[in-house]
Amino acid sequence: MQNEFSRRGFLGAAAAAGLGLGLSASRVAAQDRPRVEVCNPLLRTPLSLIIDDSCPVINKAYYWIQQRHDWRLKHEPNSPPSGWEVHYDRLGSMPNAIPAAFAAQWGDWCGAQGIRGKFSMVPFPAGVGRIDQGFPGFPPQELKDWLRVTKEIIWKNFDLTPEMLTHTHVVDLKTWKLTEQWEQGEWVDPPVDQLTEYIVAAMQLLKNVGIACEGVTSPGAFGKRKEMAHARAVLDAALQVNNNPRPFYFLNMEMEEMPTVPIRHADKAKGEAVASIIGCAGDWFGATGYDESNPDLFITADLQGGRLPAVLAKERPTILVGHWPCFYVNGQIGFKVLKEVKKRLDAYDPDKSKTIWMKNSEIGHYWMARELSDLSVTDGAGGPGRTIRIATKFPTDNFTLAIHGCTARRLQVGGTDLRQVQSQRDLGSGTFLATDKDTFVAFDLKAGDTTLSVSA
Ligand SMILES: [Zn+2]
User: Fold this and answer.
1) What is the DSSP code string of 135-155?
2) Residue ranges of the domains in the chain?
3) How close are the terminal C-alpha atoms of the chain, in Å?
4) Which of 55, 244, 329, 443 has most Cβ atoms within 10 angstroms of its Cβ?
5) What is the CA(201)–ligand 1 centre distance, in A?
6) pLDDT for 243-300, tens place per residue?
7) How many angstroms is it from 38 CA to the middle of ligand 1?
8) Domain 13-26+46-365 = CATH 3.20.20
9) Which residues contact 342 (CB under 8 A, 6 or more apart)?
10) How far does the centroid of ligand 1 lie from the alpha carbon of residue 217, in Å?
């Protein structure tokens, strides 16, 4: 199988077997003590927006279609067009570049809306030019503007990742020439001995322009047939290039079942792990700008139907996936869908008590803390107080615990009193909420040992 262009639809056996739900990660102490459980951050369901195929300067869809067409005529002239090549006859009306000024407008809008997620930055897009060397045939100022917009506007709310080197042909790293293999074709089943070096090269090009990426995105199903080796290579490359012990990768979509956040290659002693971020919906923004584009598939106008309400109802990370070209081309068709979907998500959660927008890396770090922290509960000497100890090398913001069977009157973290709030809507980092049955507490979890003192 050469042409498995899409990441969608075949969550492999390795992924299925390794699923760690992380949602019922209760750390049960002795029977007569309150049960302590890690909840979703601030008792809200994470939302995140993944943007794939974004490149500095060029419109990746234009070059992908052109190069795939040329490749097919050369290698498989009797096979029909596949993937985005079905839009070959639209090339004449498709822009080959997307302006930095549009990226600024898009990034500003997302920032004002509170949207967070991941934004790809393909470092050698379609082999047209290296992000650290320039794009022959394009005004040098466009690349400069793209880098400024990416770093100053988009990076505030979105992780930046390579989507491997070109997102079209595999690069021969000895010559930096394009080969006849495809990153999302043959490298769905990648040569493991070259994988780390390849991901290192992708990360290094971004590093060369001042971007320490938080993880990687697979072009299509890149790495899917050797997912555990891919995950290992991502972690090793992240350590090597950016000294990042807790990166993430985006490879899988889960369109039917409920998504999870599998944590791979965890080493609790070293504080190292890699998170698999799984998209649950999309791309219904329109992909190239000429593909399916429909807000109702995300969430219907009555807020009941579509994929997002189903995932939100199960309180699972709700991660939308869109391809960058559609947000600009064909009358910004994908941007219009995003605006409508965001409006409906705001209506779904009008007081912002149910959902929380997070970057992919923030979701990864939260799930690592949830699964890889050691919690213990001890009773206070002679009183109603209790002590909860947490030992972790996996820090996260908004770490949220439920202490079941306990109504706290006072709660301290590391000797500092937390503020009591009266409703879940007001629960923020550094506060606690006590009901007649349970107590919920949220704080920023630091690496090391943390002590919570609970007075009932
Ligand atoms: Zn892609």
Assistant:
1) -TTS-HHHHHHHHHHHHHTGG
2) 13-26+46-365, 374-455
3) 62
4) 55
5) 18
6) 999 999 999 999 999 999 999 999 999 999 999 999 999 899 999 999 999 999 999 9
7) 34
8) yes
9) 113, 115
10) 8
pLDDT of residue 25: 38
d(CA 59, CA 96): 5
Closest to 122 in 3D by CA, of 195, 52, 194: 52
Q: Kindly indicate the confidence band of residue 9, based on its pLDDT and cuts at 50, 70 and 90.
A: very low
Single out the residue of 249, 67, 287, 52 nearest to residue 168, CA to CA. Answer: 67
CA 80/CA 58 separation, integer angstroms: 26
Bridge partners, 431 (sequence order)? 419, 442
Reported as a single tens digit per residue, the pLDDT across 42-77 is 999 999 999 999 999 999 999 999 999 999 999 999
The fold for domain 374-455 equals Immunoglobulin-like (2.60.40)
CB-based contacts of 370, cutoff 8 Å, min separation 6: 22, 25, 38
Among all chains, which residue has been given the structure tokens 């969550």?
11
What gap in Å lies between CA 312 and CA 427, rounded to an integer?
Answer: 19
DSSP 447: S
- Cβ-based burial of 436 (10 A; exposed 0-12, middle 13-18, buried ≥19): exposed
> How wide is the angle at C-alpha 363 spanned by C-alphas 358 and 364, nearest 5°?
145
Query: Rounded to two decimals, what is the model's pTM?
Result: 0.94
- CA of 142 from ligand 1 middle (Å) equals 22
Identify whether the C-beta of residue 183 lies closer than 8 Å to the C-beta of residue 224: no
Say how many Å lie between the CA of residue 163 and the centre of ligand 1: 7
The continuous run of DSSP H or E covering 17 comes out as helix 13-17
Distance 286 CA to ligand 1 centre (A): 13
Rounded Cα–Cα distance for residues 162 and 54 (Å): 9
Fill in the amino acid letter for 24.
S
Which amino acid is present at 97? A
DSSP, collapsed to helix, strand or coil, labels residue 91 as helix
* pLDDT tens by residue, 137-151: 999 999 999 999 999
322 three-state secondary structure: strand
List residues, by chain if needed, whose CB lies under 5 Å from ion ligand 1. 52-53, 219
Two structure tokens written together for 27: 């750390």
CA distance 275 to 248: 4
412 contacts 453 by C-beta, under 8 angstroms: yes
| Domains 13-26+46-365 and 374-455 agree in fold | no
Distance (Å) from CA 141 to ligand 1 centroid? 25
